[in-house]
# Entry
Amino acid sequence: MRAYLAAPLTARWSWSTFRAALWAHVSLRVTARRLSKRGITAEVPAPPQLMAGSRRGVEAVLRRSSPTCLERSLVLQRWLFQHGVPCEVVIGVKRGASGVQAHAWLDVEQGQELVREFTEIHRLPPR
# Structure
């Protein structure tokens, strides 16, 4: 993960940043449809062969759209896998004031304060 994050970002308005953003946008929509039909076995479309620094486009789309945590995690997992960072999607639950709540995140995000509140119930392998 360290080498992936150390890769220089592509220019904001470059062709590769745009292609990465377009892939993320389309993949979010496709993944949402597939999740409703196939559940957690849904597959995310393969990303185009781009430099790791093109992640700027993927991150921009994930920030500006409103995907569910599972959609976001699956799309980001697929992007990272393509760039040599295999990680698992973790699904967890917690009991809150309004009942049981579920959340999904990547295992490389374990340090986040939010995920510490959840009890892990399932993991999806890298793909």
Summary: The mean pLDDT is 94. The chain has four helices and three strands. The first helix runs from residue 2 to 6.
